[in-house]
């Protein structure tokens, strides 16, 4: 099994310029795979998948009635990003995160960007991610979005676009680290010959980011990872990161507010907690301030947070910038707060609350991708090119009932990477989620999670919708 018969097709292929013509930077990998004995690559694929199974790299699907836990599918053919290309992506992501952080800080304070007419006031007021209890908050160092996963796509011409920003509880970094571990075993000689940026230092960078939130007067601050529990879709990641950082993994029932501080129950009594890396959505984190039916959070946590006696990452309220309608204004945020042009462009976006855009969207549903403003994981979405007339009619009614809640974008011909499907190499569509940490400085972890649509022709890469992952190699 080799690439002799692989057809890149009429898409941007991440590894090939044309049939039997690999991109210069990936030639060592292609030559290595082509030199392997027949079926050797299939054996390495199986070994890699089994290794991930033994490592416990799983995720949960809430709607799956055949069992909640699944192994995250993995494909052994990596995605490769050149050093020059990565420099541009890194600069663009740093610029974007700085602007988004400035926006969140502004929205919970003076709202200058609204008063200056850059973003309509009504869009902010009606955003489900806007949390009124967070108005006036001053998080440590003025940093709100400490950990971000920004989804990037590349179109038919090789142009990069930002698809969306994830600033609440972005997941997936554990798969990046585990994928790399198994890939080093699958292609040891290639790693020796190609200069590939390492990824295994992410936990130390994350811990530094979290410790940066604690007051300097504390000699040994206590950091915890707060998880909703074992049934959460990303529980594997929560436990993995806590173990890698050497900190406690806790649930809401392990914490209590006492003597004005957040404290952790231990066998030796209560212990003060100084920094919380929360993997719980805002609405569930404190039943006294948000959802009163929540059993996942800690009663009174918001009061401790507002008093500055505990730090939380990401800060509560960052969901206002996760709103897909607000996403459309990020280029304007960059110009407003930084006085710079965006390095990375958004996907062109129609806002259904605008009458002209609404008319266009309703008339062209068969060619557009429509998304609900606050859904994720591939839910609340219509891919027009792969939809039925009945689905489009149903979605049209939803849009007309609540135009503010929907955006639409042209269908991007996502780039592809050779992928093993039915014992042969097939071009499958991919996106890329780099992870950005905002501590003393903004750090962009090299590479990120390449998600791949394992169903032939599918554009949906989410794991909950049948997608898998690949290792991402950023060259030095």
From TrEMBL:
Domain of life: Bacteria
Stretches of the chain forming a coiled coil according to its record: none
Source organism of the structure: Floridaenema fluviatile BLCC-F154
Record's signal peptide: none
Descriptive protein name: Circularly permuted type 2 ATP-grasp protein
Pfam families assigned to the protein according to its UniProt record, in alphabetical order: CP_ATPgrasp_2
Domain Circularly permuted ATP-grasp type: 78-453
């Amino acid at each position: 099994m080799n690439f002799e018969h692989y057809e890149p097709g009429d898409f941007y292929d991440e590894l090939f310029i044309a049939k039997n013509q690999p991109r210069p930077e990936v030639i060592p990998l292609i030559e290595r795979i082509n030199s392997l004995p027949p079926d050797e690559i299939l054996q390495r694929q199986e070994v890699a998948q089994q290794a991930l199974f033994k490592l416990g790299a799983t995720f949960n699907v809430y709607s799956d009635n055949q069992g909640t836990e699944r192994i995250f599918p993995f494909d052994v053919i990596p995605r490769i990003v050149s050093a020059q290309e990565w420099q541009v992506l890194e600069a663009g992501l740093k610029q974007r995160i700085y602007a988004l952080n400035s926006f969140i800080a502004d929205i919970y304070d003076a709202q200058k960007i609204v008063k200056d007419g850059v973003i309509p006031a009504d869009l902010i007021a009606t955003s489900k991610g806007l949390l009124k209890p967070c108005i006036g908050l001053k998080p440590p160092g003025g940093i709100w979005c400490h950990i971000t996963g920004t989804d990037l796509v590349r179109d038919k011409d090789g142009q990069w676009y930002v698809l969306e920003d994830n600033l609440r509880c972005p997941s997936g970094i554990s798969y990046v680290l585990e994928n790399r571990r198994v890939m080093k075993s699958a292609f040891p000689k290639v790693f020796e010959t190609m200069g590939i940026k390492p990824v295994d230092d992410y936990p130390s960078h994350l811990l530094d980011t979290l410790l940066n939130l604690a007051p300097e007067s504390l000699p040994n601050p206590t950091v915890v990872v707060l998880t909703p529990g074992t049934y959460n879709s990303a529980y594997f990641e929560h436990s993995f990161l806590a173990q890698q950082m050497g900190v406690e993994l806790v649930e809401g029932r392990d914490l209590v507010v006492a003597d004005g501080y957040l404290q952790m129950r231990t066998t030796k009594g209560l212990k003060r907690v100084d920094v919380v890396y929360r993997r719980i959505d805002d609405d569930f984190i404190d039943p006294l301030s948000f959802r009163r039916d929540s059993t996942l959070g800690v009663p009174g946590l918001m009061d401790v947070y507002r008093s500055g006696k505990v730090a939380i990452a990401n800060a509560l309220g960052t969901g206002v910038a996760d709103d897909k309608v607000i996403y459309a204004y990020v280029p304007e945020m960059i110009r407003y707060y930084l006085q710079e042009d965006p390095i990375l462009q958004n996907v062109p976006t129609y806002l259904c609350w605008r009458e002209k855009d609404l008319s266009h969207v309703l008339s062209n549903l068969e060619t557009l991708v429509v998304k609900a403003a606050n859904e994720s994981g591939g839910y609340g979405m219509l891919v027009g090119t792969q939809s039925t007339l009945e689905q489009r009619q149903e979605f049209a009614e939803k849009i007309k009932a609540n135009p503010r809640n929907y955006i639409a974008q042209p269908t991007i011909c996502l780039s592809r990477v050779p992928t093993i499907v039915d014992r042969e190499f097939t071009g499958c569509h991919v996106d890329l989620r780099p992870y950005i940490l905002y501590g003393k400085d903004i750090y962009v972890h090299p590479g990120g999670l390449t998600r791949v649509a394992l169903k032939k022709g599918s554009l949906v890469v989410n794991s909950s919708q049948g997608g898998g992952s690949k290792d991402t190699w950023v060259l030095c």
